[in-house]
Amino acid sequence: MQTAWQADDPWRAGFPEIARRRVVSTVVRSMGYDPSHAVLEIEFVSGRVYRYHMVPQREWDGLLGAPSKGRYFDARIREKFPTTRMM
Description:
alpha+beta
């Protein structure tokens, strides 16, 4: 359910910056969540940044508390929500 990166992508327009926090993970470098728009932003160790849209607060809470961020991401978020590549 991934969208190609486009400057005029409607998912990119109008969203403010999302503050990300660094995490201990071999897959995820940093991540943040905007609860007012239900948008999860993840920076991977590769340097790529993606936004996942319509992500419920419970998934953010689960990701924060997961002992393995990469495993949680693969099982509960990847390819489950509309996605925009930011960088």
